[in-house]
Write a structure and sequence with these properties.
124 residues; 4% strand; single chain; binds zinc ion
Length: 124
């Protein structure tokens, strides 16, 4: 940050978590990054940023999903052992939690990745 810069010019990072939650475009800040709950848009419909080409390396998405699933399965087993909840309660609870955290995790991961790639592409 250099002195004399006006606050409107240093848009910078709006915070990765909020960017992931609202799916903000790294260039224009519009909510255009995601076309599906956990699927990136091909390009920003507001500024035309080529999101698809920034997503290179998205092949790790499978690994992230598997790690998340592994953590959740271990947590589910531990809770099952500890509380012994009825089966239907486990299914409802863990089903919702799995869907929620996989979507949330993927959004965060993809947003971090796209923002990282976008910054790299801005380097001279
Ligand atoms: Zn944009």
């Amino acid at each position: 940050m250099t002195p004399g810069e006006s606050p409107t010019e240093q848009k910078g990072q709006p915070g990765l978590v909020s960017a992931a939650l609202s799916g903000l475009c790294p260039r224009c800040g519009e909510k255009t990054l995601f076309a599906a709950p956990a699927g990136l848009a091909e390009e920003c419909s507001a500024c035309g940023l080529d999101v698809l080409s920034l997503e290179r390396g998205g092949r790790f998405v499978g690994v992230v999903t598997m790690l998340l699933a592994l953590v959740l399965i271990c947590a589910a087993l531990a809770v099952d052992e500890w509380l012994r909840p009825p089966l239907w309660a486990s299914l409802v609870f863990w089903g919702a939690l799995t869907v929620g955290s996989v979507i949330g995790g993927l959004r965060l991961y993809k947003t971090m990745w796209v923002y990282h790639q976008y910054e790299e592409s801005q380097q001279p």
